[in-house]
Design a protein that fits this description.
One of its GO terms (biological process) is ADP-L-glycero-beta-D-manno-heptose biosynthetic process. It comes from Daejeonella rubra. By secondary structure, this protein is of the alpha/beta class. The protein has a domain of 204 residues: 3-Layer(aba) Sandwich (Rossmann fold). 36% of the residues lie in helices and 16% in strands. Strands 3-2-1-4-5-6-11 form a 7-stranded parallel β-sheet, sandwiched between helices. Strands 7-10 form a two-stranded parallel sheet. Strands 8-13 form a two-stranded parallel ribbon. Helix 1 packs across helix 6 and helix 3 runs parallel beside helix 4. The mean pLDDT is 95.
Length: 321
């Protein structure tokens, strides 16, 4: 059996599809399945069992002999949420529990970290583990991810193989339920469809013009390819960046979405909401040398090709991955 936590969510459900495509069907989906809005993400996919996240730790202890691999993708990912106790419960402590069980029973583990751990990028975007304790995330979500990375690195006892992946700005099918946290491509598509135009955030940083804020946008198909690679690799444990290594502007992203829809760009700018303005990342770019060094050699989608695939093959026809 292969475990996927967060299996009803964006990345988790796309990983389920990837595993199905590769001939893996004995999958255990773990999530809070009470959110019916996400159920479309795993409809039509093949799996063995659903386990509610509240009883998963107990279930894993009882069934560890049948488990081959654990993907812990589930997390509270709302960067605007300020309840530290909630993040400690769902991100930090929950992941510690899974880590300890995997260590005890010899189960390989890949878990989701985040590029939010890099904060404003004062120390760059290099996944050098010696720098991780010095990082300064901008919100409780980033803190919870960085706190776990620090804790994991300090442990004397670890799973025989483990990897933490710092996801950068992931976009693609199955993110429709994320609301405000969905990618700007998703929001651009919907705004164009509803109004014929797109409103991007203004820059409140004199070093960046409006729309020229830059992020490392990585397509979900690349993300699940890396996850699949690590499932088979099972060596070189550690914490890895997962982006493309190439920062692009939000203007590039919006223009690419208009192009995929065969429409002329109509873009304006609105003030960045005050609740995120002071904690806004103006630039992220993953250093991908470490993942490449352990043998991952596939090319990543460039932004234009990723947008075109997402818009034409998923958003327009209303399909899921």
């Amino acid at each position: 059996m292969i475990i996927i936590t967060g299996a009803a969510g964006f990345i988790g459900s796309c990983l389920v599809q990837k595993l199905n495509d590769e001939g893996f069907y004995d999958l255990v989906l773990v999530d809070d399945f009470s959110n019916e809005n996400k159920n479309k993400n795993f409809e039509g996919k093949r799996y063995s069992k659903q386990v509610n996240r509240d009883v998963f730790a107990e279930w894993l202890r009882e069934n560890h002999l049948h488990v081959q691999f654990v993907f812990h993708i589930g997390a509270r990912t709302d960067t605007t949420e300020m309840d530290v106790k909630l993040f400690n419960q769902l991100n930090l402590d929950y992941t510690k529990t899974i880590w300890n069980i995997c260590t005890e029973f010899g189960l390989p583990l890949v878990y989701a970290s985040s590029a939010a751990t890099y904060g404003l990028g004062e120390l760059g975007y290099d996944d050098d583990e010696s720098r991780i304790p010095m990082l300064k995330p901008l919100n409780p979500y980033g803190d919870s991810k960085n706190d776990f990375d620090i804790w994991a690195l300090k442990q004397e006892k670890k799973p025989y193989f483990w990897a933490g992946l710092k996801f950068f700005n992931v976009y693609g099918p199955n993110e429709y339920h994320k609301g405000r946290m969905a990618s700007v491509i998703f929001h651009t598509f919907n705004q164009i469809r509803e109004t014929g135009s797109m409103k991007l955030f203004q820059s409140h940083n004199p070093d960046f013009k409006d729309g020229e804020q830059m992020r490392d946008f990585v397509y979900i198909k690349d993300v699940v390819n890396v996850l699949y690679f690590l499932m088979h690799h099972r060596k070189d444990s550690g914490i890895y960046n997962l982006g493309t290594g190439k920062a692009r502007t939000f203007l590039d992203l919006a223009k690419g979405t208009f192009k995929a829809l065969d429409k002329e760009p109509s873009i304006s700018f609105v003030p960045t909401p005050e609740d995120i303005r002071e904690k806004y990342q103006y630039f992220t770019e993953a250093n991908m040398a470490k993942l490449r060094s352990i043998g991952y050699s596939q090319d990543f989608y460039n932004l234009e090709d990723g947008i075109e695939d997402y818009v034409k093959n998923y958003l327009v026809p209303g399909k899921f991955l």
